[in-house]
Each structure stands twice: as structure tokens, then as C-alpha cells.
């Protein structure tokens, strides 16, 4: 378990915090490109790392991400006019471009040079395949975008969910691969699954043994169970700094899918959970029973679904009793939401009791805290910031001979990063 101070270090991400400063060294998803569908469209309220910001697309199509508050009298720029390559405050007409420069100050005399002395906080943005990436760090020249393959194909699928929990709470759920056997697949038995399949192995043996590796991208795990055929069934996944996860999924063979999940902190108590993956030729994506509510314009009004904690995620107790569903909750992601949100928005890790199957959580927490402290104390660059190729990983499930080292044996499948081949398949 963590101490109270360690829990604070791990979870707090606002301006000036060690973990928040650590995250600011990286590029990460700020919003979807289609939230700003055309030049000079309506601006959008965005909350990231505890900061209230406004995103807009200017006349030339460039995305700006600026402070919500006009530096004149602190009125909200959300109400501003997006026009002629700038966002104009409706209070006194001050106008700012995507770089945060004041480009017009009509309320001042023509001879005044005050306009040149005023600048608003603005963060750099880059768009790639449906994602507006943002860099909130202090480097004048930011690092390169991470080479996360799921966002590097022209054919892709993106979903975003609002989660009223701390970022680490959601990310730890992705590290805990053993829960799949219970939370998602607890209704399966050896009688209702096909022998030799991944689900059969999970139904037959619900315990697991872990091996965890510290890597250039963060941490990776392999969890294995012995099979009837004398092999080990492995579930392989990764945590990639600062808050990305690649998980084995329910039926995914290792290396077959290119994608990632991201837990982007809005603040200490709210997170946007991103799922980004490349589509295979001819694939039609599914949103897994999610019924989205219309997006609102307030800070926490985007990407909410009808199933939520207030309505108990529409749990079906009859389905639970009949064991047609272990939880009675429809949707894999909704099942995850129910348990992690039931812990509270920041759960008290000083009261937990971790076992051998929690090795990935334990090691990853330590690595996060050590990296954040190293940056704060001596400026050590966080893992992966300047080496985008370390994100060339895939996750999934595989059966291996019991005498093999899983990390070496899975290298080719794990590092199956291949943007060119996917592009050729799509174009062909």
C-alpha cells in the first residue's frame, strides 16, 4: 500500500504538482479533430491538467488552445467571436491568435503600443488522424509526437468517455488484467466455451502468475496460466508513459491489433478516457453498447453515456442471478466504469491490501513516482519523451511453450509496428 504522501504525489496533476509537471513534458490528446469541424467554428471549453482552456480552429484551419480568461478583465473567451484568424473577446474586442498573441485591441487609441505587450497563455497543437495533440510543457521546441501506431493509420476509430475519477484509478484498471476473468468473463465455464480458446483457458483456470518488466516506454507485463496442452497461455500488455495503456483484450491474439487507451486528466477528479485504434480493411467499428448523451458545453459536459453511477449502470440483477452476465451490467467498458467509480473519485490506497497478482500495479506506481521525482529534483527527462519509437508495441494473447522466455519469444509479435503495410492494404 502507499503512504498518504505517495498517494498525493501519484494522483495530483494540477499546475505546479510533480506529476502534473511530469505529464506536461509529453504530447497527449487534447480533443478530437471533429470537435472543431471547420474554420471559424464555435470554440470548445477544454479542461486539461487542472487548467480551464478554450480550443478554436482559426480561418486558416489551425487549432489554438488558449487560456479561458481574457487577460483584460478576465471574461471567458468561450463566448468569443472566432473570426479572421483569431478569437475575439466580446467584452472589449481584444483578439488573440493561436499563438496567444494579441492581434487587435480596438478599445485602445490607434497610437497605443499596448497590444504588443499583451499575450495570453497558449499551448502548441498538432493534428494527426483525428486527434488534436497538445504540448503543455516548457520546452520552446517540443519533443516529437509519440509513435503510437493506433493514431498513425488513415483508417481509424476513436472513442472518448468522460470518467469522474482520477486518471491513475482508470489506468490501474488497465494494469489489472486478472480482473477480465471475473468482471468481464465470470459467466463463462468450460462447458460453454470452446476447448483450446483463450476464453476456455480463462474459464478453466482463474488464477494467474505475473512477470513484470521495466521498459523504455514504462512497464510491461506477461500473465500466464498453464494449459491442457502443456503450454502457457500468456496475456501481454503495456503501460506507456505518461498515461497510455495497451491491453490484451478479450479475444485479441498478440500483435493483431494496433491501438491504445489513454487516461487524459482533466483535473484530479475527472478524466477523459480515449480509445484509439487502426481499423483493418473492411472493418466496421462498434462502440460496445454505449449510448452517448448529447455533448454539453460546460467543463464536464462532453462524452457522457446513459449508463452511469447515478443509475447503477442500469444493472440487471436477473441477468446476474441467471449468470448470463457475471455483473448484470451491459458493456465491457461500463463494467470497468462501475467498479473503478465505486471506489470514489480518488481512492484511498493507504487502505488497500495488494497480492501477488498486483505486481504490475506496484511496479508501475513506483516507476511513475521515481520518474516524477527525478524530473523535479534534477531535470531528468521522463522515459520515452525524446524517443518516439519506444511506443512501437502491441498487446494481446498467445500460447507459448513452457520453456520459452515470454519477453524474447513475443518480440516479433509485440513489435509488429507497420504503418506502411497497413497503408498498402487499405489502398489496395
Oligomer: single chain
Return the CATH class of the largest domain.
Alpha Beta
Please count the beta strands (DSSP E, at least 2 residues each): 18
What Rg do the Cα atoms give? 23 Å
Q: Report low-confidence residues grouped into runs of 5 or more.
A: 422-428
What is the helix content? 10-25%
Give a description of the structure:
With 428 residues, the chain is an alpha+beta fold. The protein has two domains: 32-135, 3-layer Sandwich (Rieske Iron-sulfur Protein), CATH 2.102.10; 149-427, Naphthalene 1,2-dioxygenase Alpha Subunit, Chain A, domain 1. The protein has helices at 4-11, 18-24, 167-175, 179-184, 198-204, 317-322, 332-341, 359-378, 406-409, 411-414, 419-427; strands at 27-32, 44-48, 51-57, 63-67, 81-82, 87-88, 95-96, 102-104, 122-128, 131-135, 156-163, 209-215, 218-226, 231-240, 244-246, 259-265, 271-278, 396-401. Strands 11, 12, 13, 14, 15, 16, 17 and 18 form an eight-stranded antiparallel sheet that branches. Strand 2 and strand 3 (51-57) form a beta hairpin. Helix 2 (18-24) crosses helix 8 (359-378). The protein is elongated and about 85 Å long.
Amino acid at each position: 500500500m502507499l503512504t498518504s504522501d505517495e498517494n498525493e504525489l501519484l494522483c495530483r496533476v494540477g499546475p505546479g504538482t510533480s506529476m502534473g509537471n511530469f505529464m506536461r513534458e509529453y504530447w497527449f490528446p487534447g480533443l478530437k479533430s471533429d470537435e472543431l469541424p471547420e474554420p471559424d467554428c464555435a470554440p470548445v471549453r477544454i479542461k486539461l491538467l487542472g487548467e480551464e482552456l478554450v480550443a478554436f480552429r482559426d480561418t486558416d484551419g489551425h487549432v489554438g488552445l488558449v487560456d479561458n480568461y481574457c487577460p483584460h478583465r478576465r471574461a471567458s473567451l468561450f463566448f468569443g467571436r472566432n473570426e479572421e484568424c483569431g478569437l475575439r473577446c466580446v467584452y472589449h474586442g481584444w483578439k488573440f491568435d493561436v499563438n496567444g498573441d494579441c492581434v487587435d485591441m480596438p478599445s485602445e487609441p490607434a497610437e497605443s503600443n499596448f497590444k504588443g505587450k499583451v499575450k495570453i497563455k497558449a499551448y502548441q497543437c498538432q493534428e494527426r488522424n483525428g486527434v488534436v495533440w497538445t504540448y503543455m510543457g516548457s520546452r520552446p521546441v517540443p519533443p516529437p509526437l509519440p509513435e503510437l501506431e493506433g493514431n498513425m493509420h488513415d483508417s481509424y476509430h476513436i472513442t472518448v468517455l468522460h470518467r469522474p475519477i482520477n486518471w491513475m484509478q482508470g489506468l490501474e484498471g488497465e494494469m489489472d488484467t486478472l480482473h477480465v476473468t471475473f468482471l468481464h468473463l465470470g459467466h463463462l465455464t468450460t462447458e460453454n466455451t470452446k476447448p483450446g480458446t483463450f476464453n476456455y483457458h480463462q474459464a478453466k483456470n482463474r488464477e494467474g502468475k505475473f512477470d513484470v518488466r521495466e521498459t523504455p516506454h514504462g512497464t510491461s507485463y506477461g500473465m500466464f496460466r498453464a494449459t491442457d496442452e502443456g503450454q502457457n497461455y500468456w496475456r501481454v500488455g503495456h503501460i506507456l508513459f505518461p498515461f497510455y495503456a495497451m491491453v490484451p483484450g478479450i479475444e485479441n491474439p498478440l500483435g493483431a491489433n494496433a491501438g491504445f487507451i489513454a487516461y487524459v486528466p482533466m483535473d484530479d477528479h475527472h478524466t477523459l478516457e480515449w480509445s484509439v485504434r487502426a481499423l483493418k480493411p473492411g472493418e466496421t467499428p462498434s462502440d460496445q453498447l454505449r449510448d452517448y448523451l448529447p455533448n454539453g458545453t460546460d467543463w464536464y459536459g462532453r462524452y457522457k453515456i446513459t449508463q452511469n453511477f447515478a443509475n447503477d449502470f442500469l444493472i440487471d440483477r436477473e441477468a446476474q442471478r441467471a449468470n448470463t452476465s457475471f455483473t448484470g451490467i451491459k458493456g465491457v467498458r461500463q463494467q470497468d466504469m462501475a467498479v473503478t467509480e465505486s471506489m470514489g473519485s480518488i481512492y484511498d490506497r493507504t487502505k488497500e491490501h495488494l497480492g501477488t497478482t498486483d505486481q504490475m500495479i506496484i511496479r508501475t506506481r513506483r516507476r511513475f513516482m521515481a520518474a516524477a521525482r527525478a524530473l523535479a529534483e534534477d531535470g531528468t527527462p521522463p522515459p520515452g519523451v525524446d524517443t518516439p519509437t519506444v511506443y512501437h508495441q502491441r498487446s494481446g494473447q498467445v500460447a507459448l511453450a513452457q520453456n520459452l522466455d515470454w519477453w524474447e519469444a513475443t518480440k516479433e509479435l509485440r513489435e509488429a509496428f507497420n504503418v506502411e503495410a497497413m497503408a498498402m492494404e487499405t489502398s489496395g
